[in-house]
């Protein structure tokens, strides 16, 4: 399995790779992960992830200085290491999580040795370019088209291509011109999360994710400022490049004392925070699935999210939460208010709707599908959106 971003990075692609690798290892598979080295720790190591040992091949990498955590590996180093690892390990299947760097080396090696190759896309070039270039916006579209062309080249080598949702698959097909892209949920282990149906004694809005511009977290702060009469508290879990700007915005809005920037926390603290919160907010406009939102749903939290990209696959208005039009702060605040002031029976109905939605995204189902793909079997998109189809 190859990834351009992997633990300890905190983002959807890194989390999915970790969860998939650990889940496969629990089923008795021998799993190797090729990923960037952290702080010069180069070589092959046995690392424990999600309670299971994985063999991780760490390739020399550099941090991209304009970004707080993004790292990159040199293509020729990746190519040489991919060939070496494939020769030594002799895998039955190779699965790359990004075509940016690591996918190129692993795809080439897998095809050279006749190994079943799976590719999963987690990114939109337009979002990546915001972090890796300082060129004018007028040039970003041109660079994005080049990246889409690159994605087509490398993903076309795969025996099967997947993305987390049908909307993400359609977006990818449009960008690359490829077809038959499978929509396979990233999945989460729902048994890790706990729902609490007891009455809430506080109005707590939770957010989990990177503090990056594409998440539009300032909209959450602006919506929370309109709920002063409810004495809301906002719990923001995650780190990122715009934290200082968000802290400044909270002060400008006069709600700094009610916004808790938690930074990165342990899994135990994360899960307890979700369990005890009242509502989860996800204002991002660039989610190809949103593992964080699935974690909230698995914790029995109603969700208020932006009606953008793949979030409507998870948030079904009136059933497990509400969607708001991106940028409409009044609508955002109104939906948060509706959840926070809902009578107990209505609040519990939304909670149970959240749990029903996430059932289709249990990682055991995801593992079954990827095992089939690794064996070269044909699969069809699972129905993870039954509520939407009604």
From TrEMBL:
GO terms for molecular function: glycosyltransferase activity. Residues 10-191 form the Glycosyltransferase subfamily 4-like N-terminal domain. Keywords: Glycosyltransferase, Transferase. It holds the Pfam family Glyco_transf_4. InterPro entries: Glyco_trans_1 (IPR001296), Glyco_trans_4-like_N (IPR028098), Glycosyltransferase_grp1 (IPR050194). GO terms for biological process: carbohydrate derivative biosynthetic process. The keyword Ribonucleoprotein does not apply. It comes from the Bacteria. Residues 199-343 form the Glycosyl transferase family domain. PANTHER family: SULFOQUINOVOSYL TRANSFERASE SQD2. This is D-inositol 3-phosphate glycosyltransferase.
């Amino acid at each position: 399995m190859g990834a351009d971003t992997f633990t300890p990075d905190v983002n959807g692609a890194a989390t999915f790779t970790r969860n998939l690798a650990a889940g496969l290892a629990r089923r008795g598979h021998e799993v190797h992960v090729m990923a960037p080295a952290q702080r010069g720790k180069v070589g092959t190591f046995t690392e424990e992830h999600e309670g299971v040992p994985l063999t991780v091949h760490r390739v020399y990498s550099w941090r991209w200085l304009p970004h707080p955590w993004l790292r990159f590996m040199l293509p020729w180093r990746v190519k040489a290491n991919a060939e070496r690892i494939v020769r030594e390990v002799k895998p039955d299947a190779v699965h790359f999580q990004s075509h940016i760097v690591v996918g190129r080396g692993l795809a080439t090696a897998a095809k050279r040795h006749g190994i079943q190759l799976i590719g999963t896309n987690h990114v939109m070039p337009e979002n990546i370019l915001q972090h890796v270039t300082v060129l004018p916006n007028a040039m970003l579209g041109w660079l994005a088209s080049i990246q889409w062309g690159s994605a087509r080249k490398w993903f076309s080598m795969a025996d099967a291509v997947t993305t987390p949702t049908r909307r993400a698959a359609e977006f990818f097909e449009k960008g690359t011109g490829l077809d038959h892209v499978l929509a396979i949920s990233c999945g989460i282990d729902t048994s890790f999360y706990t729902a609490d149906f007891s009455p809430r004694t506080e109005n707590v809005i939770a957010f989990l994710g990177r503090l990056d511009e594409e998440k539009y977290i300032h909209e959450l702060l602006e919506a929370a400022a309109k709920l002063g009469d409810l004495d809301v508290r906002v719990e923001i879990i995650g780190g990122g490049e715009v934290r200082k700007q968000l802290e400044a915005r909270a002060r400008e809005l006069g709600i700094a004392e009610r916004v808790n920037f938690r930074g990165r926390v342990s899994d135990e603290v994360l899960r307890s925070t979700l369990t005890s919160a009242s509502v989860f907010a996800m204002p991002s406009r660039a989610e190809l699935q949103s593992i964080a939102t699935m974690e909230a749903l698995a914790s029995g939290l109603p969700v208020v999210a932006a009606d953008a990209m793949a979030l409507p696959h998870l948030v079904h208005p009136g059933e497990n939460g509400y969607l708001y039009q991106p940028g409409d702060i009044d609508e955002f605040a109104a939906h948060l208010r509706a959840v926070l002031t809902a009578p107990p029976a209505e609040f519990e109905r939304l909670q149970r709707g959240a749990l029903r939605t996430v059932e289709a995204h249990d990682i055991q189902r995801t593992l079954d599908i990827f095992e089939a793909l690794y064996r070269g079997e044909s699969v069809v998109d699972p129905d993870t959106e039954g509520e939407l189809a009604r």
